[in-house]
Amino acid sequence: MEELHEEGKIRAIGVSNFHPDRVMDLMVHNDVVPAVNQIETHPFYQRTDDAAFLDEHDIQHESWGPFAEGQNNIFEHDVLTTIGDRYDKSAAQVVLRWLIQREIVAIPKSVHDERIAENFDVFDFELISAEMETISELDEGESMLGAGLPGHQSCASSYDRRRDARNSCKRGLVAGRTRRSPPERA
After folding, report:
1. Which fold has domain 2-141?
2. What is the pTM of this model?
């Protein structure tokens, strides 16, 4: 992929489902920093630590599963519908607006023309800080979509480990994110 990038055949490299320690590993051992990391992000799994890490390294956070695949009754959730009623918007529109205000890219899936149009109709209102805070309280801190699968636990629990790894790797990123030699294998 890096060769294609260097040749100008692709403009960017993105990753999906990379926890911060894997992103850091990728940055340390490669020349091209990913432009985007698409990770499960929705009101019930907000990934605030991951978002801070991605922001710190100028990597765009993209949400997959912004509607939590309908889990927790998201489209009828009292908190989201109450906020939506204030703006004459649906719970889905509130979720999309919440992601936009967090500077997280979302590409919601729908095959229904009316829902596709509704998903675009999120730029004529803005959630106030109290509403953003109320939504932040919905965070359960773990995946709802990959429950029971390896690697699908709260990243917050391993934040200190990742921060320590990030700090120890920074010397390899000095002067324009240079490549460090990979460790010797035994």
Report:
1. TIM Barrel (3.20.20)
2. 0.77
